[in-house]
Amino acid sequence: MASYDPRQGKQPEGNNGLLIAAFVAVVFMMGWDYFAPKPEVPENAIAQQTSMTVEGAQVPGQPDVIVQGSSQVSNNIEAPTTKVKRLPVESKSLVGGVALTGARLDDLALNNYTVTLDGDEKVRILSPNGKRIQFFDAGWQAVGVQVPAGNSVWEAKGDALTPKTPLVLTWSNEDGQEFTRTYTIDETGYTIRVVDEVINRSSRDIQIGHYAQVHKADGLEQGGDGYEEEMSTFYNFIGPEGVIEDIKYEHDYDDIKQEKAFKYTGQKGWIAIKSRYFLASIIPDQQTENTWQFKYSNLNGRDFYSAIVQVPMVNRVAANGGTYTKSYRLYVGPNKRQEMSKESVGLEDSVDYGWYQVIALPIYSSMMFFYEHTGNLGLAIIIVTVILKILLMPLASKSYRSMAKLKQLTPKMEALKERLGDNREQMGLEMMKLYKEHKVNPASGCWPMLIQIPIFFAVYKVILISFEFRHEPFMLWIQDLSAHDPFFILPVLMGVSMFLQQKLNPPATDPIQRQVMSALPIVFTVMFAMFPSGLVLYWFVNNVVSIAQQWMITKRIEKAEGK
């Protein structure tokens, strides 16, 4: 706040010093999420990767490969010379294939979203080979029972997975156990339902454990194919995450590689591997005590990271026809709150606005409301910005009145400076008398700026993280509100508006501070040049409305005083 300390000979400068402080706050708060302490992981949460082996089955967290002769295939899940048969997956939202080898869902693209704004290539979340390997599989663990392995070939009842035709896959061993996996899919949406069942037709009881998992190969150093970045940034976490018993867990790839595994227990929740805008997640039934793991493994020199939901081997399957069934869902789609909320398990918490959540969620909801009614997300940003300015108007009015009066006192302050010269202590005392005489409080100009800072960063997080802004056009040359202005017109307009706003404020009496203030519009223009155009649009509209409010209040004061 602007205040006077006679011992240091400092004098208040209205709102100018605060703008400098605000600039420092911008830099600090933008990095807060990155440098802020992360929630502590419970001591019993960390578990080393086990060396357990199970007869014929792949171990949870260890992606199996197709065996070709006596050698395993490096860097590819499927052998390049062996054509793995797949049955198609087709809906309005999803297209891909289910591999009969391993019964894994390893090829899935999103019909409604392209990799680049102008391209035709669909966003592919699951892929069996190449530099973007990511796939889903599931399996069983048992003692003394042959269970299907990652390279087991299943038989299909059906030709495709469509909304009208579920896909049923079966595999049987020689001892009388039959394993069935049934995939179903909706016409729209991004949820695939899976039912795994074991039928025990042998003459003895068996015990079965089940797991489902999503694997992702390390392709971070092999980018450049047009997809969004796959490493966490200071504003958004990317990687393995989950919500277990209402506690959110996020583990960087490096942390998982170092610790080998993180293990939790709980009944309710979900687990996933997330990119900036898309998600591959497993949602188990919310009625079973599960073991949840984030795990690292190395397969022929390539790093794999896995998100796993596991049911221990405590499930007794009776002889002569006993069954064990495990149902769960896969959500493979956009990291979009409104879409993920349909799962009713808190999957939308994957979109995390961090420290600003309490402010960001109402702003996000308001923008989505006006987006639905206008069909233009840029107009929604403008409307929400104007509404925020109206809500802050009572406080802003007091601030603008104070600054208008300070501006009227500028000639008297300049006269004092000329009369007292370098006597800063006397200068400060005389200015305090001047403020008291005219009933001006320079500190009152601080509050609107302080309130705007968290609101600005809430909008910042909403626009950078929320899926809805991806590839969303505004008008004219702005065709992607999540990307920077290709012609830098909006940042320049924002800088000009900031310059004009400064002209309405009382100038700083200190020459150095005056120079700093005059440079801030240029500094902010350069800094905002690479910001998402949606964020620059918000700041520009905010400045324009502030200028209009301040100009009207100044004119009223001048009119009231007969000027």
Shape: elongated
Give Rg in angstroms. Answer: 31 Å
Q: Structural class of the secondary elements? A: alpha+beta
Mean pLDDT figure: 79
Work out the number of β strands: 20
Question: How many distinct domains?
Answer: 2
Please, could you describe this protein's structure?
The protein has 563 residues and is of the alpha+beta class. The protein folds into two domains: 16-30 and 358-560, no CATH class; 136-352, Beta-galactosidase, Chain A, domain 5 (Distorted Sandwich), CATH 2.70.98.90. It is built from 13 helices and 20 strands. The strands form four sheets. It has a nine-stranded antiparallel β-sheet with strand order 8-9-10-11-20-17-16-13-14, with no helix packed on it. A hairpin with a 2-residue loop joins strand 1 and strand 2. The model is unreliable at 1-22, 28-57, 65-76 and 220-227 (pLDDT under 50).
Task: Outline the secondary-structure elements.
Blueprint (H helix, E strand, L loop, with lengths): L15 H15 L1 H4 L31 E2 L2 E2 L13 E5 L3 E6 L5 E10 L7 E5 L7 E8 L13 E3 L9 E6 L4 E9 L5 E10 L5 E12 L21 E6 L2 E4 L2 H7 L1 E6 L2 E6 L3 E7 L5 E10 L2 E16 L4 E13 L2 H4 L16 H18 L2 H15 L1 H16 L1 H11 L3 H14 L8 H20 L23 H15 L7 H18 L4 H28 L3
Antiparallel strand pairs: 1-2, 3-4, 4-5, 5-6, 7-12, 8-9, 9-10, 10-11, 11-20, 12-19, 13-14, 13-16, 15-18, 16-17, 17-20, 18-19
Helix pairs in contact: 1-10, 1-12, 5-6, 5-10, 6-13, 7-13, 8-9, 10-13, 11-12, 11-13
What is the structure about, briefly put?
The protein has 563 residues and is an alpha+beta fold. The protein contains 13 helices and 20 strands.
